[in-house]
């Protein structure tokens, strides 16, 4: 599915949108791990994101969205816009519907992650998907951060960056 992000029928515009989204998430996570120093961020932080990690990021976004048992209109709009911006075909939309119906568990998301920067990127992706305005969403993010071993200081920086 992630391959569809860069090889969609919409060509370079969709690929740019997909890579731009990965760059945003990766940059946020990099600054969170490094203590908020934007000048220390690499020029292309998304270059470190492989297809497996991108898939985990997407799964984390969906799981965060359904954490409170309800996908509200804004959350669904964000997911739909992400799918559209990425130029995903019908298979991608079918994947999204299947993930919404049966989202990944926190363990399924966190278990394959061994790199602290990848962990921060996955947390940032989940946080970007939601407003974290319900107790269940905040608990999901806390449990995800714990499972990924993302330091509290890093999650705080991601949260502040998205709030500001």
Automatic annotation (TrEMBL):
Domain of life: Bacteria
CDD domains (UniProt xref): terB_like_YebE
InterPro entries named among the record's database cross-references: TerB-like, YebE
Name listed for the protein in its UniProt record: Tellurite resistance TerB family protein
Membrane spanning residue stretches: none
Signal peptide: none
């Amino acid at each position: 599915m992630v391959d569809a992000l860069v090889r969609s029928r919409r060509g370079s515009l969709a690929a740019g949108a997909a890579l731009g989204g990965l760059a945003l998430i990766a940059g946020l996570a990099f600054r969170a791990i490094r203590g908020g120093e934007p000048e220390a961020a690499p020029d292309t932080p998304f270059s470190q994101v492989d297809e497996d990690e991108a898939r985990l990021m997407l799964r984390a976004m969906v799981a965060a969205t359904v954490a409170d048992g309800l996908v509200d209109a804004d959350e669904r709009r964000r997911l739909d816009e992400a799918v559209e911006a990425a130029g995903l075909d019908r298979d991608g939309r079918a994947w999204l519907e299947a993930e919404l119906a049966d989202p990944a568990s926190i363990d399924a998301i966190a278990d394959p992650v061994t790199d602290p920067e990848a962990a921060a990127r996955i947390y940032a992706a989940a946080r970007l998907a939601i407003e974290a305005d319900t107790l269940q969403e905040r608990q999901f993010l806390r449990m995800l951060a714990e499972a990924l071993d993302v330091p509290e200081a890093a999650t705080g920086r991601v949260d502040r960056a998205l709030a500001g």
